[in-house]
Design brief:
By secondary structure, the chain is an alpha+beta fold. It folds into 2 domains: about 5-180 and about 360-445, Aminopeptidase (3-Layer(aba) Sandwich); about 185-355, no CATH class. The chain is about 25% helix and about 25% strand. The chain has 10 helices and 19 strands. It has helices at about 5-10, 20-35, 115-125, 150-155, 225-230, 280-295, 335-340, 365-375, 390-400, 425-445, and strands at about 40-45, 50-60, 70-75, 100, 105, 135-140, 160-170, 175-180, 180-190, 200-210, 235-245, 255-260, 310-320, 320-330, 350-355, 360, 385, 400-405, 420-425. A 7-stranded antiparallel beta sheet has the order 10-12-11-13-14-9-15. A 6-stranded mixed beta sheet has the order 1-2-6-3-7-18, sandwiched between helices. A 3-stranded antiparallel beta sheet has the order 4-5-19. It is elongated, with a radius of gyration of 24 Å. The two termini are about 30 Å apart.
Length: about 450
């Protein structure tokens, strides 16, 4: 199989989470078949959206093994591309795979569906008869909107018989053995009308930010927060519209509002239809939000970068006379996100909509050690680290598996934004790393048919 050509084909196949993944799952099945692997597609419908899981097994059956099998997991969905004009490296088309030197640009080139191609290439290079333990490769769905595919994988019992999991996410081939948790909340701020607006003029504003992954909000600029700061300036006497953001796990790049600005030369607020709201509820909520972030930054863990719990206001809109904010927190170990947000309850109705567990695989785990040895065998640095984002690995760890996050491409400053890319040589190294780990865990270290450990060299 031509790894790079298949990587480009995966990038060219749209698989935005909320649209379902029928097309990319079909592409994954075709890849598996070309690589000589049996392909199985299972259909899962969640909230009226049809998703498909691509599965392929090689080696002995999981239910007939010693329970030490290896899962190779990669999510096939992506976030939306956002403003396509910002994808300058691909000519304004995020689904057009573009090579530039040693880089491959395009949505999903790093996060993370191209990793599935690397895993298939790794497994295709191993004869089934060599495997003493089962290997299962899985292309999941809905990772970007709640780890939906991995939740289904665990709930349906398809992790049984497996002890280890390599989870595909961009890490520049560094082995991630621990990461933060993740929680998504909705805050509904009750609004108050201005019964008689003072003399003012109406101004529609559009504020731009810089979109980055919400795990590193300090690298971007939050357009919603910029709008709330504008609302707090003394010339603003009221407002009528507010909308911004998109996926909660992205720092929002745009927000718009309609403001009433003090103007003694005017008789009133002409040209406005509908409700006009007092600024104070939003100002109070935003101040409480900033206090919350300041408190969370006081508790630090140097194993992580950023070294504290971070949060991001990801989306805002109006609903039934309330300003509705969707936001996320990424807690370091020891921080309970639901308790952390309790001070906001004075200013908004709070609802926790999603909570995903952290990852903490011990460094002495056979999986971690196998990855380290594989890195060394390929001339790479033996490198273990932590990650500021939440992944499918947390759910697999909660289900009792040892999990490591690993993949080609950079995460920070690259994914969940325009011009996402990965370095082409890393794709081939990822393939070779996966193949080496499979050998160490499922061939060399596996039990022989008579139940004995093979001799080690």
């Amino acid at each position: 199989m031509d790894l790079l050509s298949w990587a480009e084909r995966f990038v060219a196949t749209s698989s935005v989470s909320h649209e379902g993944n029928r097309a990319i799952a079909a592409c994954a099945a075709e890849l598996l078949q070309e690589a000589g692997l049996e392909a199985r597609l299972e259909t899962v419908t969640i909230r009226d959206t049809e998703h498909r899981v691509g599965i392929s097994d090689r080696g002995p059956p999981a239910d007939a093994s010693d329970g030490e099998g290896l899962l190779l997991v990669t999510h096939l969905d992506t976030v939306p591309p956002g403003d396509v004009s910002a994808w300058t490296a691909t000519g304004g088309n995020p689904f057009r795979p573009t090579r530039d030197g040693d880089r491959l640009y395009g949505l999903g080139s790093a996060d993370a569906k191209v990793d599935f191609v690397c895993k298939v290439a790794a497994l295709a290079g191993i004869a089934p008869r060599q495997l003493q333990r089962p290997v299962r490769i899985v292309g999941t769905f809905g990772e970007e909107i709640g780890l939906l595919g991995t939740k289904w994988l665990v709930d349906s019992g398809k992790t049984e018989g497996f002890r280890y999991a390599l989870v595909g996410e961009p890490s520049e081939l560094v082995a991630i053995h621990a990461h933060k948790g993740y929680a998504v909340f909705e805050a509904r701020v009750p609004l108050q009308n201005l019964p008689t607006p003072p003399p003012c003029r109406v101004e529609r504003i559009h504020l731009d930010g810089v979109s980055v992954h919400s795990s590193t909000p300090h690298l971007g600029r939050n357009a919603i927060e910029a709008t709330l700061e504008r609302l707090a300036l003394p010339d603003v006497v009221g407002w009528a519209e507010l909308e911004g953001g998109g996926p909660v796990n992205q720092v929002p790049a745009q927000c718009s509002a309609t403001l009433l600005l003090a103007d003694a030369t005017r008789a009133g607020a002409s040209g406005l239809a509908g409700d006009v709201y007092d600024t104070q509820p939003l100002i109070a909520f935003h101040r409480a939000w900033r206090r919350l972030l300041a408190r969370l930054s006081e508790h630090r863990d140097p194993e992580f970068d950023p070294d504290h719990t971070v949060g991001s206001l990801g989306r805002v809109s109006l609903r039934k006379r309330k300003a509705v904010f969707s936001f996320d927190l990424r807690p370091i170990p020891g921080v309970d996100p639901e308790r952390a947000v309790e001070p906001l309850a004075e200013f908004a109705e709070l609802e926790c909509q999603r909570r995903n567990p952290p990852l903490a695989t011990p460094l002495e785990s056979p999986l971690v050690q196998a990855v380290g040895l594989a890195q060394e065998s390929l001339g790479l640095e033996r490198h273990f680290a932590t990650k500021a984002t939440c992944t499918e690995a947390g759910l697999l760890a909660q289900a009792g598996l040892d999990a490591v996050v690993l993949g080609a491409g950079a995460s920070v400053g690259n994914v969940h934004g325009p011009n996402e890319h990965t370095r082409i040589p890393e794709l081939f190294l990822a393939r070779d790393l996966y193949r080496d780990v499979i050998r160490r865990l499922c061939i060399d270290s596996a039990l022989t048919p008579d139940g004995r450990k093979p001799c080690s060299s």
